[in-house]
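Troubleshooting entry. The earlier prediction with magnesium ion gave an output that would not parse, so I re-checked the input for stray whitespace and re-submitted. Clean input:
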Amino acid sequence: MITIKSPREIETMAAAGRIVAETLALVGKHVRPDITTEELDHLAESFIRSHPGAQPSFKGLYDFPATLCTSINQEIVHGIPSHKRVLHDGDIVSIDVGVWLEGLHADSAATFPVGDIKAETARLLAVTQQALAAGVAQARAGNHVGDIGHAVQQVAEGAGYSVVRELVGHGIGASFHEEPQVPNYGKPKRGPRLAPGMTIAIEPMINIGGSAIRTLDDKWTVVTQDGSLSAHFEHTVAVTDNGPRILTTT
Ligand code: MG
Ligand code: MG
């Protein structure tokens, strides 16, 4: 069932989304060679819990053990923060974070460069951000979920990259994952129709190489099968009478 949020609920999600955006900015400032993903996770958890009523969405969700998902290089999503995972110059790290506030969630992700990265890696990050922006622009009342996926796919494949298909964006609200699913590929005018009050997480996962994925033995970390780099950018967006409204922003 697709839930329609009231204006008040959307404001609460925007308040959660502000904390999410500030968390990503804080973590992004600390991304550098020699820091561990566990240190980033602790920073994020303390920051989120410093806001009255706010909690990390991920910790305990399907038994995930941490506040952040931290996915390095060929890791696409769901990497588990660890004191053993040290960031190195030239890496990229995808940080995914959710915040629960007054009964509602917000969800966002970004991929950060660690130190100096190659031009071809920087291009992957730039294109994935453009793909997200193109998807968000389609989150308009009267459009369909397929319009979002189509826009993301056009940007990604137009740049010579591939789109991860097994993992998709999602409705979000009182539950972290709600209907509809929001794939990063699709055909215009297909799929559920978008209406004011819908809130969705749009989250392209784009690989330099092939689209195939596999899950590591830790049962969480999803990686590209060919070992190529992957980037992930995400916003929680409300469909409004005045077009898309990004909720995960300051
Ligand atoms: Mg996310
Ligand atoms: Mg999400």
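This one parsed fine. The two ends are 30 Å apart (CA to CA).
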